[in-house]
Amino acid sequence: MEDKLAQELEAWGKEKVAYTFPRWEQIPDIELYMDQVIALLEKHFHKFPGDSAGKLISPSMINNYVKQGIIPPTIKKRYSRTHIAYLMMLCTLKPVLPLAVVQGIIEFQLQTKTFAEVYDHFAIEQEQASVYTMAQAKAESELLGQTAATEQEMLSNLSLKMAVLANSSKILAEKIIEMERAEGKLSTLDDKGKKSKKIKI
């Protein structure tokens, strides 16, 4: 990656690779009000994934997650460490997967791990995925650069390749959760989008 746009992409990628998700023990172990939750999450999402932070979280979204049983109910409208961790996972993954699938992935993990372990496992996997994706992008850009006539063509081909890889990964994740639900190992959603049974924390 030697050209201007490619260098800009590489610099952006290094920032994403350097970012670490707060671990369970680093999430405030105090009850927060809605505005405090929003401020905390926006601070995180401003760094990961970046400019789309405002689209990922809002008070109405959080209220809907509670009403639909996607996250546990609040106590006196206050949010705990568990709520924050749930929202970190949901908001990070929802641009890629339907909420029902993200919900299923968390529930599947909870069959063998505590919730704290599930969250920390998610954080580690997301960080490793950032490293892998940027390493893959760099390798692919070097290969594509050998055949592409221009930097624009190389980046265009790279964006397509990453998009289809993301789509293939999405399809696989959805299939696994679909199979688990068919086996009766995960809760299902009713016609209003609510869970038929609660996830145990």
From TrEMBL:
Pfam families listed in its UniProt record: DUF1836
This protein's UniProt keywords: Membrane, Transmembrane, Transmembrane helix
Segments traversing the membrane: 84-106
Keyword Transmembrane helix found: yes
Source organism superkingdom: Bacteria
The protein's name in its UniProt record: DUF1836 domain-containing protein
Organism: Paenibacillus nuruki
